[in-house]
Amino acid sequence: xxxxxxxxxxxxxxxxxxxxxxxxxxxxxxxxxxxxxxxxxxxxxxxxxxxxxxxxxxxxxxxxxxxxxxxxxxxxxxxxxxxxxxxxxxxxxxxxxxxxxxxxxxxxxxxxxxxxxxxxxxxxxxxxxxxxxxxxxxxxxxxxxxxxxxxxxxxxxxxxxxxxxxxxxxxxxxxxxxxxxxxxxxxxxxxxxxxxxxxxxxxxxxxxxxxxxxxxxxxxxxxxxxxxxxxxxxxxxx
Length: 238
Ligand code: ADP
Ligand code: MG
Hints:
The protein has 238 residues and is α/β, with parallel strands linked by helices. It is built from 8 helices and 10 strands.
């Protein structure tokens, strides 16, 4: 499960309306990319869904249940950030186990989930290493592993590859797409990179100044951009 519905979700910081009331549905299992220029509100929107920011107005529902007032830990979503935020003194295994340990999960269940995540991410041979002994791409995979073991209804990624060099980024894009197929779980992926949006998304949401310019598949946006902003950002010239 992992259907997320935003109903007139609005966000103001003080008097500044960063997200005017916005409607959006993310279907269960969909890979949705939020794309748009820097400062258009992509991170804010993701943080509202995650519960890291409170909405100023509107409703968020996850699998049909009201989630607007739930704290992040109760939403059943997992956020993956661009910074790896791994514990340098802990092994990969302990890093991945950490959220489960904090939740007081049974040790056998922890081990089962670690083995499953490590297999999905090709980390099985690296579980006893420390983050400092891993490449950038492997560290990013550990961060994703820590999200996987929570078996979330959806993964939320905020520009997770922006700290990686160009070559590594291409490989990680493919890996995340593969992971999406394997896990069959909803993913919302924020980027300002058109190529990432075009190659990874089932559905692209083009944002501009906090509102949705257009929603569609990569092909729809490419061939039928609604206006010059979308065309300039993603599509072929109109
Ligand atoms: P993006 O991720 O698309 O680059 P953000 O969501 O980070 O954009 O920011 C959208 C707008 O909201 C920007 O103008 C930013 O300055 C503003 N903003 C974001 N967070 C805060 C905050 N905590 N307080 C005030 N303004 C904020
Ligand atoms: Mg951002």
